[in-house]
Each structure stands twice: as C-alpha cells, then as structure tokens.
Amino acid sequence: MGNLRESYFQAVSNSSWAHEGYLVAVDVDWEDVREEYRRLNKAFGIGLIRLDVDAVDKSEILFPSRIEESIDWDTVNRIAVANKHFRQFLGLINDDIRVTKVTQASGYDKVFSDEEMARHVLEKKINVAQK
After folding, report:
1. Per-residue pLDDT reduced to its tens digit, 95-125
2. Phi, psi of 129 (to 5 degrees)
3. Are strands 22-25 and 60-63 parallel, antiparallel or unpaired?
4. CA nearest 61: which of 20, 89, 16, 100?
5. Where are the alpha helices (DSSP H) in 45-83?
6. Contact at 8 Å (CB) between 28 and 50?
7. CB < 8 Å & 24+ apart, contacts of 75-81
8. In DSSP terms, which residues pair with 24 in a beta bridge?
9. Domain residues for 73?
10. Number of domains into which the chain is organized
11. Average pLDDT over the chain, rounded to whole?
C-alpha cells in the first residue's frame, strides 16, 4: 500500500500540467488496493493501466484518467525554463501545429507495434516477478 501511494503521488506530481495521466503497473493485488485506488482516482484523477507483459495488446485500463480541459501554462512554462528536453518537446509540438500534422521529422518517441513492445518487454526484463 505504501508503494502504491508513493507511486501514485509521483504520477500526480509528474502530470500536474498534463491533459491526462496514468500509472502503469505490471501486477496489482486488487484485494489490497482496489478501494484505496478508487478513492485516489476520484480525488486526483490519475488513471491506472494494468500492463500484461505476456500479451501487451491485452493490457487494460482499470481506472480511466480524468481529462483536464485546460492546461496549467504557469507550470508548463516553469518546466520549460528548467528542463531543456521538455523545452525541445514543446518546440516539436509548435512545429507540428504550424504545419497542421505530425511529420516524420518530428522527434517524438516511437510508437511500438505489438511485436516491438513484446520485444522491448523481453529486452528490459520487465516481468511480473519484479514486484
């Protein structure tokens, strides 16, 4: 339960400026955390995804994220000043907005196919035994 709260509030902190936020877990002991997560989700809006490392396409959203209708621009600006990678990310977004599409030249993270994700999970040794 302590790990849940620590991870949850780290996700809250990291997504305070975002449109939506999720915590991704490989293994969740529902008997211990279901009601607590439901309470936290209702209060703070961070969703929960159960990652199925054996069949990534069978992963599921257990609690949906609350979608923020407005962006906290003060926080975005503060992060952009403090973090050059985030500032570069914002530049990519601005470039794509100007041309009204996401281009191949955009520097976003690659979206993995199911096969690539399965390979990534194996390479990173992500498994349920890593609780």
Report:
1. 888 888 776 666 777 888 888 888 888 888 8
2. -70, -10
3. unpaired
4. 20
5. 73-82
6. yes
7. 75/16, 75/17, 76/17, 79/17
8. 49
9. 2-130
10. 1
11. 84
